[in-house]
Every structure is written in structure tokens, then in C-alpha cells.
Amino acid sequence: MTAELQAEAVERGTQSPGADCQMLLNQLREITGIQDPSCLHNALKAANGDLTEAVTILTEEQVKEPVQDAVAAEPSNGEGSAAGKGLQTDVIDLAPDNKDDLQAVIALSLMESPKVQTAERDANRSVNMAHETSAAENKNRSKRKRCEVWGESPNQNNWRRVDDWPVGLKNIGNTCWFSAVIQSLFQLPEFRRLVLGYTLPQSVLENCRSRNEKRNIAFMQELQCLFALMLGTHRRFVDPTAALELLREAFRTAEEQQQDVSEFTHKLLDWLEDAFQLAVNVNSPGDKSENPMVQLFYGTFLTEGIHEGKTFSKIEAFGQYPLQVNGYRDLTECLEGAMVEGEIDEKATTQSVKYGQERWFTKLPPVLTFELSRFEFNQSLGQPEKIHTKLEFPQIIYMDRYLYSSKEAIQKKREEIRLLKEQIAVLQEKLERYMQYGSGPTRFPLPDMLQYVLEFVTAKLPADGPSTQESPVAPSEPQAEPRVLDGPLLQNSALKMEDAEKPEDAASAPADTPPQPEPVSKPVHSSASLTRVPERPAPHVATEEEMSLVRTCLQRWRSEIEQDIQDLKDSIARISQSIEKMYCDPVLRQVPYRLHAVLVHEGQANAGHYWAYIYDQPRKSWLKYNDISVTESSWEELERDSFGGLKNASAYCLMYIKDKMPRYVADDDAGAGQFQKEVEDLPPELKHYIQEDNWRLEQEVEEWEGEQSCKIPQIEPSSASESQDFFSESGPDQPSACEPDLHSLSSQHAMMAKEQTAQAIANTADAYEKNGVEAALCKAFREEYSRLYLLAKETPTPQSDPRLQHVLVYFLQNKAPKRVVERTLLEQFADKNLSYDERSISIMKVAQAKLKEIGPDDVDMEEYKKWHEDYSLFRKVSVYLLTGLELYQNRKYQEALTYLVYAYQSNTTLLRKGPNRGADESLIALYRRKCLLKLNDVAAALFISSDEAHVADGVSILNELIIPCMHLIINNDISQDDLDAIEIMRNRWCSYLGQEDMDATLQMKLGELLPRLLDCSAEVIVLKEPPKIRPNSPYDLCSRFAAVMESIHEASTVTVK
């Protein structure tokens, strides 16, 4: 909110001293996180109304030891200075007089300055000096290392945009917050139109004298160029460096300090507002009613209340409306809590000291933005913390219940809800008496207690157990009444049982004979007596009539109690349902707002990553904008990442659009070609800018292709005995110059099956002698085909995979074309390595002649080649999987992870073509996940050891293996198990933040590592293939597969030679 809007708002309302006090209290609560009103009031009173002094008083009271750091240390690469996120700039309550004080306090405590670890705290130090220190340190900060996404992408096709699909934004170093904000704004058609159509009269340009005006105009021009590229570029992502550098430069100056991501966003919108103000109302610059930014994003609300018995009322403007998260379940509760504070008693006298206030929106903007306060300052730790509690929000929200025009109806409903909630509280209290019954510290549900007593009553002693005859009562006396089985009676009963086990001569001894002393070591109860104790408690003395009466009473009482409980629950549910439906009146559903964008933060308060979910109206789906990546998503994924409570990711900003204003919502019929239409309507200079960038892209592609064609393929030397599987294991994803030709690849598969082929030829001796070579070839062909067909139909087991035995088993299981199967089998008999004897040579020559007769019209050779490439890749996946499993069992986790990751990536390519094309994906993923978790434990242990060499090793493992593998996993279809594992690993490293016993150097290194660990979209990962391992025959591979699979299922280490 601007100062002009504040002044205009104040002019339209009355502001009492009590309201000013409450405003300061709100600011103080926001900064310190302390919720106790009396504590805040006393601190403000002791500071004579000085906000800075009040913060100092509260901080020193909470932290016993004086804080020595004037500038809080923060990891150098925390995305967007999220450390200060908890201290949201309150656009509603900050007056010009005290806003500078608040910024000074925040700057001194949360300034981004990663290398300044200690500095003497001075409350009177100027903000300029604090920022100069921060700027100097930031200048020398080590930048995060990343692959250059422009030139190191392995495939030039990754540079090109697909049709009209939205483009991403390049992360140029901790700028993911900028990507999320800009993408959310760009996808607003009205905002996009305003930016691209921005022009200034020449007279205004000539009269611009102030530095701020020139900077704002320059920023608008860069934003125009950026938006134009996002519309018409042929790239998959564009570079926002020019616009970002202007923002960064502004925050390096002394008077404009970086607070946090929220402050960045506010500053961005302020610049846009000021830039548009130059283009409207030139004659009256103070009037912002015609400013399109104000019309689009700003609204007003009325605050009415009572403070110390005096009523007050004021109108204020707002842009991004802040909402507290703590203590609320959903967005509706957040809004209700923000709109009503305290209790307003209209009947109160002037002497009343009650406080309360209500807020009512008097004007809602077309784009309604809510800031969710997900960060708070921890006084005991002296640093900000993120709030991870779950907060749900709807796709459609009706704002009628918060409008001033609905005040009378809503107040009545709020009173009804208050009374209903009081009823629920009374019912809950009654229900609690039933569910927590008893007078001692431990209480139980009353129905359960009655059931336990009923079970005791219905229990029966064993047939040989104590009976009425064994009772201590004499037989001549009348039967004693049943007694409660208390402690002394149990002891007497036990003694009697013990007496029953004594020898007869002892029993016949005189009654007055003194008992013989027993050894001290003898237990109280003999082993014989313990065997007579019943297995479960049961009444010892009770008549059948008594038992029947007790059972009847207990059953009746339990039924009555259960009915009472059910009635209470039904009443509570019925009243709760009435409360939920209180605002479902169609009259109160006339102002719908539809969710447009959700900005998400993942990580902790001082490090993390940002991305956005934006609803694409023409496509009717949610899209995820994650730096350079733009992918189709779903509401379910958005819920999982944005609601919070499950992991370190949660929404921090919600953007809603007024649903009944078509000009602000994308047209449903826009569809494909909408961006192209907008490009055609651009000014000539922006069209030319797009054309130049697209021309540069073509030049870059040509240069890259030229570099690739000049590279000499390096083929690793191998002996003749090892060369048979070299080509078959190279895979289709290698450069074309390195790939074997078609005949080499298929002949290698034929050579791998030569032993099976030789056996098939040996079985044709009779046919060869009687009918000649043609008949022998036909017989061998049919019998081999039948054998392989039956093998392909066998049910696989965990210890065997028939596809490894022969290429045709793989083809048959995946329903390869008949012509491909026949040619592959014929080529098997044409293998020149079958020159064993005259019959083999004759059959080989006939097969070779038949191969020459097969022309391009008979078999699609391109399809034939792809099938053999797939089988080659399948064997490579199998080899890498087995190697990775063996290495894992031998605890060589680093080497194992490389093989397993490559196996998974290659296997994914195969599985896209069919479920039987690749290996067991879940098995690879399981051991890849296990390797990652093991390596993460190793790296973490090395890192916190404080030994310099060990720390370097831990960082190396993290940078070279764990982080690249995590990025590969997340950027593909990720399972819940993988997601949980990655969350465990991230939490492990995030838990080290702010540890008092950790060295400052380690904290700095941790700050450099965490952004890469949390930000999984800013790097293009190039997977390096592990060393090749080639089996000599399919039988070797099959036996190895069986041994390894048996080993992992039985958890015993097996090494296969």
C-alpha cells in the first residue's frame, strides 16, 4: 500500500489514539511472535511508544544472554532471503511515521549477510551502515555452482519450445521466487495486456528527472521485453537477467534494503504502480484512482471497533492481504480470525475497558492476493522458523460474508454461530465426562469400564479352583455373604491354597503347634500354589441370583450410557453441520473468486525453493511452473505440496481472480494459438525483438550441431573375446557416430545365440541326409521357433527372466511384428560363426542367400533396427541392475548408486513403449532409494565430524552423487516412497541449521549446499554412463541374474564371477 492511498483512506475515516496503539501492538506481535496482549502493552508502555525500543525490551526478556550478532548469519545461498519471511510487511497497519522503525529492527535482526558472523549490537546504529556491511559481504559471496543450461544441454531439442506451451524462466542464482511471481502475473491476461501495451508520451520522458522515475521506466521496458519473449520465443525458457538486475541493484542501496521475498514482491508491484502513474493523470500525479495497477490489485476495508470504551472507525487500502496460519485449519477460518478481533459489546458503557474490532471489505480488487504468514521469529533461538502446520484452501471462495454491504446479515449469522458453538461446548463437556470417567489421574471411557466389569462378572474359575468349601469360613456356620476381593482377602486365599498343598502329617499336627520358620530365600508362594491361581480374575464367592442381577444391571447401564453418548455425538454433528451450512445461502454466494495461482515455498526459514501452480483456463488444468520447467499437474499434487503438514513445502501466497469479470480471466476458447495472436498485436519494436532472439536460437543450434559433428568418437579398446557385447550394450542414446550399424547389432544378437543355433542344426541330421539342406534349414527354423515361443510363454519367477536367454523371447513377449521375428531368426542361422562342419556351413549359406532375397518392401528396416536397439538397451539395464545390486550388498554404495540410477533412467525409456520392454522398475527404484539413504547417512556423518578432510568428502558425495540423483528422481514421475525418502534426506540436512555446537564455517558450507538440495529445477543434469560390464553369453547373464535375485531375497551376499 502506498503512502498516498493511506492518506486518502485516513481522510475518509476517524482514527483514535486507541487505534494507533492497537496498530503498534499488531506490529509488535508480528515482529516478535509474542501473542500475550498484556506483555506487548507493557513493553510498549515502557518504551514510551517507541517500537524499536519495545522490540529490544521483549527480545532481551526472552533471551537471557545478550544477542551479540547485529546481523543474523544466514547461508549464502538461501533462496530469496527467506530468513525474514516471518516478518511480513504489514501493508495495512504501517503508518509512514513508524514504518522506518520497523524496517530498522528487521534489518538489524534478519539482514542477509552470510559471512558476517559476529558484530557488536548497537540500537542507535544507522540502517545505512548495516546495509553497507551487507552489500559488501553479498558482493563477495560465493555463487552456487550449476550447469550452464544454455550450452550444456545434451540434446538441442531441449532448447526448443513445443507449440504454444508456456515457457519457463531461467534461474540465475537464487531467483526462483522471481520466476514464481512473474509467471503468476504473466498468466493474468489483463496484466499481460497492460505491460505489453505500456507507453509514455514523449513529454513525460523528457521531464523525467528523478533517479527513481528513470529506474521504474527502465524496469517496465525490460519487463515488456521479457513478456514479449514469453509470448513469442521458440525457446523452452527465457533469461530474465536484465529485469532482475534492476531489482537487485535497487536493494543494494542504503535506503532500499532487502527484507525477504515478500518485500521483493511488494517492491516489484510498487515500481509497476509508480511506472503506470507516469502514464495516467499527468496533471494530478497524486490521484491514483485511474492507475491500472491500483484498479487491478488494490482494495479497501473498513475497521470499526471499541478501544477502552471509545469507538473508532477508519478506512484503509490494501494490496496483498496478510493472514496468520497458526491456529487455523483452513482459509475461511483465517479470514474470519482476521476480520474479527476481540469482542465488541455495543451495550458497554464509556467506562468499559473492553476491546474489539471488526473489519469489512468495502471494495475488493479483481485480483485478490492473500499472504500466508508461514514464518515467525523464535525468541529463544534468536532466529526465524517456518510454520509447517496444514492449512486448506478452496478453488472457489465466496467473499460475500466479509463485505460491508452484508454486514447486518453476517453479524446475525455470527451471533447464531456463537450461540451454536456455546451449545457444542456444553455438549462436548458432557461427552467428555462419559469418555474420561473416573476421579484419579488415569481415566477411561465409561462404556469400556462397564464392559470390563461385565467380563469380570461373567468369568468363571476352573473346575479344580477354589470353591466355597475351601473358604476360611467353618462348614457349620451359615454361608458367608460375597465380599469384595480386596488385598487381605487375596492374601488369605493364597495362604489357604498353600495349606492345601502341605503333607498329611503336617496337617494332622496340633493346632497350637507353632509354625516352623522357613528359610529366608523361600518365596512367599510355593510353585504348587501358583499353579492354582486362575489365569484370569473371576469372582470367588457369588450366588447365581447375584450374578444374574449384576449382569442384567451392567448390560442395561452400558446400553443406556452408549445411547447417551451417541445422542451427544449426533447433537454435536447436527449443530456442526448447521454451522457449516450457515453461509450456504445463495444470497451470500454472489461474489465468487476463483483460485488463479498458488506460490509454494519448500525448505526452512533461512533456505528454500519457490515455485508456482497456475490454473490454465483454456487447457482446464493446473500447470506447475518450476523455473525452466513447466509441466502439467493436478489439484491432488497441488494439495500435497501446498496445504502443508506433510513435508517442508507449503503455500505462502494465494492469488484469486474475480470470477464474474471476463476481462480478467483467460478466454475458455483461447486454446492453441492465443499467444501467437497476441504476438501479432504487439508493437513493431517488440516483434523485432522476438525475431532477433529466435534467430539467435537458430544460430546457437547450428553452432552446437557443428561442434558435435567435429567430435571424434572415443571407442574404448577391448579384446576379441570381450567385443561381442560391446555394441549390444552401447544403447541407442549414444551419438550416432558411435552406434553400430544395423547388421552389426543384429549379427551380435545372432552370435550371442550361436550355441542354441548349433544345437538346433545338430537336431536336423536326419532331414539333412534324406531331404537336403533346404529341408534341414526349414526343420531347424520351425523347431527353434517353437522352442522360443514356448519359452516366451513361461511364467517368469523372481529368479529367472527368459528374455535374457534370447532376443526372440524378448520380441515375442512384446508382440514384435512377424516379419521382424522371422528375419531375426533367419539371421541367426546365417551367422558366419556357425562354420563347424559341412552341414552347418551349407545351412548357413542357404540362410544367407534367403536373407539377400528379403528386400526393403518385405521388412521395415528402420523398425527392425529399433527392435534390436531396444533389446540391446534391455540387456544393458539388466547388467547395470545386477552390478548395482552386487555392489550394494558389498556396501559399495557410491559405485552401486551410479549403476542403479543409469539402469532406472534407461529402463524408463523402455517402459514407455510397453510394460514388458524393461526390467522391474520397482526393484531398481527400491535399491536406488536404499543407496541414496545410505549415502546420505554417510555424507551427513562425515559433514558433522568437523574433520576438514571428512567434511570435504561428505560435501563431495552430496554434490557429485546425492544431489544430481535427487534431481533426476524429482524431475521424473516420482513415487510416494521416493518422495518420502527425499524428504527424509532434506530434513536431515535442514536439522543442522542453527545448531549452536556447529562451527560457523560448517554453517556457511551448509548454506551453500541447501539451495541445491532443495531446488530441483535450476540445473540440467547430464547423466554420466558408468563403466561398461559385458557378459560373455546369455547363459552367463541368466545364471548371474538367478544368483543375484536369490541373494537379495534371502539377504545373503553372493558374488558371481
Automatic annotation (TrEMBL):
Biased composition range(s): Polar residues: 721-733
> Coiled-coil annotation: which residues?
403-437
Q: Where found? A: Nucleus
What superkingdom does the record give? Eukaryota
Listed GO biological process terms: proteasome-mediated ubiquitin-dependent protein catabolic process; protein deubiquitination; regulation of proteasomal protein catabolic process
State one molecular function term (GO).
cysteine-type deubiquitinase activity
Q: Catalysed reaction per UniProt?
A: Thiol-dependent hydrolysis of ester, thioester, amide, peptide and isopeptide bonds formed by the C-terminal Gly of ubiquitin (a 76-residue protein attached to proteins as an intracellular targeting signal)
Provide the Gene Ontology terms for cellular component: nucleus
InterPro entries, alphabetized: Papain-like_cys_pep_sf, Peptidase_C19_UCH, UBA-like_sf, UBA_8, UBP14-like, USP, USP25/28_UIM, USP_CS
Q: Where is the USP domain?
A: 167-659
Which Pfam families does UniProt cross-reference here?
A: UBA_8, UCH, USP_UIM_N
Q: What is this protein called?
A: ubiquitinyl hydrolase 1
Q: Which organism is it from?
A: Alligator mississippiensis
